[in-house]
Amino acid sequence: MPAVSRRAVLGGAGAGLAVGAVGGAWGGRASARDTRPSPGSARVAFHGPRQGGIVEPAQARVEWAAFDLLPGTGRDRAAGLLRDWSAAAARMAAGEPGGDGGGGIALDAGPNSLTVTFGFGASLFDKLGLADRRPPALAALPAFPGDALDPARSDGDLWVQIGADDALVAVHALRVLRRLAAGTAAPRWQMAGFSRTPGATARPMTGRNLMGQVDGTNNPRPQDPDFAAKVFATGPDWMAGGSYAVLRRIRMLLDDWESLPTDRQERLVGRRKSDGAPLSGGPDAGERTPVDLAATAPDGALAIAPDAHVRVAAPASNGGAAMLRRGFSFHDGLLADGAPDAGLLFAAFQADPARGFVPVQQRLARGDGLSRFLRHEAGALFAVPPGAPEGGYVGQPLLEG
């Protein structure tokens, strides 16, 4: 079956949503929705110059997992694991069985835009005798004000990101990879998140986070002339075309946030809650209206407040620093005090964290009014190698070079 464009499938899923939702099985008839292309048939090829799960639109479900190599694991066994993982990921991305494991929970599902992304932590290089090939950009991140990172849910030798538009497909893929890792690597931590389901809105729209804010408007876009320079690394040799992923589990103080009036929330963000338009753009602005950091309100005050998130995070406020953000919401029940254990699984892909995430986060930690409602509870940094060609596996130039 030829690969299906995910964007084409999503475009079909958005049209006629109301018709499909109203008619259908209740009257014993097939609804109009049943005649549209199924989002489950959309495929993202595993093999290629770059790994999937970076530039593709965020899927409805994500699974993150980190693994640590077992004692005595050498380079050959690690290479064997990446070879097995890559082969299984390629099969599942094509909608084929991944192999043993997974419990058969996805047997009747299509690929659902499945992507599997692999990353290497700094600790991997020492364990495999590859310290001389560890890239400088993988240096430990500095401590940021307000961080309370749990070591048990941070870092790791290997990272796996699984995205899919069906939760069972994503969980199945994770089960397959965990089974393949047995005897070579042990799970260190695992997190799950979600995003908007394809077709949930009448037209394609930027998603919202659990604060209700449109999230991701000013992300770099592949058509930008400097996109590759911001997102993809140029070296060392085995990392050329790869990227660096900074991960954060950010809990939101939702009860406190929701007690604020909407205009106060908008001031802290710098955008209207209703449509994501910048407060600097006036009543006719839309989500894509450029932010004007110099604009003033009728009373002479800055339209975008000095501590508004969009001002503090803007490339213009950080010497041009930028990164490709890929966020997913999480909601893991309640804490002991009854507050929701919920927030954002934040991934930022960039060519060099020292020029991307680090300067922006340092400024956010010092001056972002939104930070009073956020708690950074886990974090990690991984080198994400380029993709693998047919017959190869992710990380092969490093592990066999």
From TrEMBL:
Keyword Nucleus listed: no
InterPro entries per UniProt: Dimeric_a/b-barrel, Dyp_perox_C, Dyp_perox_N, Dyp_peroxidase, EfeB/EfeN, TAT_signal
SUPFAM superfamilies: Dimeric alpha+beta barrel (SSF54909)
Dyp-type peroxidase C-terminal domain: residues covered: 207-387
EC number, UniProt record: 1.11.1.-
Gene Ontology BP terms: iron import into cell
Cofactor(s) needed for function: heme b
Catalytically driven reaction(s): heme b + 2 H(+) = protoporphyrin IX + Fe(2+)
Domain Dyp-type peroxidase N-terminal, residue spans: 51-194
GO cellular component: cell envelope; cytosol
Basic and acidic residues bias spans: 264-275
KW Ubl conjugation (keyword) present: no
Pfam families noted in UniProt: Dyp_perox_C, Dyp_perox_N
Keywords: Heme, Iron, Lyase, Metal-binding, Oxidoreductase, Peroxidase, Signal
An annotated Gene Ontology molecular function: peroxidase activity
Region feature (Disordered): 28-48, 195-229, 264-291
Location within or outside the cell: Cell envelope
Note on cofactor: Binds 1 heme b (iron(II)-protoporphyrin IX) group non-covalently per subunit.
Protein function: Involved in the recovery of exogenous heme iron. Extracts iron from heme while preserving the protoporphyrin ring intact.
The family this protein is said to belong to: Belongs to the DyP-type peroxidase family.
Protein name stated in the entry: Deferrochelatase
Species of provenance: Kitasatospora griseola
